[in-house]
């Protein structure tokens, strides 16, 4: 099938409601005089193209940089912010880019450094094999970038990964390749639900909009389609997920996820156990309790990690509620006493931190159990409960 035929799949009229309303207003004002003719016209509605126009990254990050990996042709693009404290090293999800953390970075940089990386095949990074998104290659990329940046004297690193990036963060931590790893934050990815969703992903990818006449249309579609709920964040991050196709004379996705299916299972197999085995302080941020699988439920009850369920948000927590996300990251750093060179007072603070995590675990488990009982109102299995979410694309 000629792919160019899909160019018509984004009808202009579907995104021209504002213009239609203004046109109708003009027609009404020119109608015959009536009892209502003295009522002034309402202010014009903001034009769609302006409402969804791109925003540059400079208002959020301080600088961008390219890291050339020695003995290769791979170049990874980074966005940086902040000048002191530990380094919050951010890894985006599949199909996103480093700008996914822009709004949150503008808050985190007040007390920590932020580095957001465009992973292989994403954003402005350039690599020899753009489709090699195997978990081994992605992990090697992250370690290579950090080693190239900091050499033998790395600062304290807090790895933050969203969705696919969360899988990479966990796998890097499990390899124990970072001597200065001081914290691990995983955003809305759980092995059980991700693995169960794999069979649906090609259908989901093929059903999304593929071609955009302008960047504004892509931003608008991402917000109206529900993948992002924060217009400002979408205006910053979406341009970095697109590229212009000269042959089709339109914008398409920078990352062709549908061509990387062979790597998907490797992203998530064994993820929960690897997460639980990481010795560094751990935080799991979820958009809903039904995302938690059995190993993590048990681990949470045992106090092995801190968990926060972020309400009223979609899958991209860092984009939808960036202020809350930034506060959670900074609280995690403060709570675990992570300074620029590592965890301060590790021996003296160990017991108090462990007790605090266990207390959080107990309180959360009581609340989660009550919600689960209320939700199911029957003898449904834990598997049925955690598979109740209809948003099958959440784990990207």
UniProtKB/TrEMBL annotation:
Residues 29-38 have a biased composition (Low complexity). It is an enzyme of class 3 (hydrolase). SUPFAM superfamilies: alpha/beta-Hydrolases. Residues 1-47 are annotated as: Disordered. Keywords: Hydrolase, Serine esterase. Its EC number is 3.1.1.-. Residues 1-11 have a biased composition (Polar residues). It catalyses: [phosphatase 2A protein]-C-terminal L-leucine methyl ester + H2O = [phosphatase 2A protein]-C-terminal L-leucine + methanol + H(+). GO terms for molecular function: protein methylesterase activity. InterPro entries: AB_hydrolase_1, AB_hydrolase_fold, PPase_methylesterase_euk. The keyword Hydrolase applies. Pfam families: Abhydrolase_6. The active site is at 163, 188, 315. Residues 88-327 form the AB hydrolase-1 domain. Demethylates proteins that have been reversibly carboxymethylated. Belongs to the AB hydrolase superfamily. This is Protein phosphatase methylesterase 1. It comes from Rhododendron griersonianum. The lineage of its organism: Eukaryota, Viridiplantae, Streptophyta, Embryophyta, Tracheophyta.
């Amino acid at each position: 099938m000629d792919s160019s035929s899909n160019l018509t799949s984004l009808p202009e009229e579907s995104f021209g409601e504002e213009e239609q309303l203004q046109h109708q207003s003009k027609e009404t004002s020119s109608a015959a005089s009536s009892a209502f003719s003295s009522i002034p016209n309402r202010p014009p509605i903001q034009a769609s193209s302006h409402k969804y126009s791109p925003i540059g990254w400079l208002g959020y990050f301080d600088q961008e940089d390219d890291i050339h990996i020695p003995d290769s042709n791979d170049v990874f693009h980074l966005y940086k912010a902040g000048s002191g404290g530990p380094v919050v090293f951010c890894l985006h999800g599949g199909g996103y880019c480093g700008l996914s953390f822009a709004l949150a970075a503008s808050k985190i940089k007040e007390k920590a450094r932020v580095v957001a990386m465009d992973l292989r095949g994403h954003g402005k990074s350039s690599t020899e094999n753009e489709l090699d998104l195997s978990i081994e290659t992605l992990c090697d990329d992250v370690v290579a970038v950090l080693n190239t940046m900091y050499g033998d004297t790395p600062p304290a690193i807090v790895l933050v990964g969203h969705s696919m990036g969360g899988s990479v963060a966990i796998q890097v931590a499990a390899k124990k390749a970072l001597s200065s790893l001081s914290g691990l934050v995983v955003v809305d990815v759980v092995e059980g639900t991700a693995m169960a969703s794999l069979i649906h992903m090609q259908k989901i990818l093929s059903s999304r909009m593929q071609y955009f006449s302008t960047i504004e249309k892509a931003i608008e579609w991402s917000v109206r389609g529900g993948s992002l709920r924060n217009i400002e964040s979408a205006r910053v991050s979406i341009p970095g997920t697109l590229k212009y196709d000269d042959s089709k004379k339109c914008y398409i996705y920078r990352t062709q996820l549908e061509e990387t299916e062979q790597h998907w299972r490797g992203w998530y197999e064994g993820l929960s156990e690897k997460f639980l085995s990481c010795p560094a302080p751990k935080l799991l941020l979820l958009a809903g309790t039904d995302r938690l699988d059995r190993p993590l439920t048990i681990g949470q009850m045992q106090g092995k990690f801190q968990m926060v369920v972020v309400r009223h948000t979609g899958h991209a927590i860092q984009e939808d509620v960036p202020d809350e996300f930034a506060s959670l990251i900074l609280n995690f750093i403060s709570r675990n006493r992570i300074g620029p060179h590592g965890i301060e007072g590790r021996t003296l603070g160990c017991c108090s931190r462990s007790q605090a995590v266990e207390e959080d675990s107990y309180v959360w488990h009581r609340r989660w159990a009550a919600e689960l009982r209320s939700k199911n109102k029957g003898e449904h299995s834990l598997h049925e409960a955690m598979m109740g979410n209809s948003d099958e694309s959440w784990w990207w």
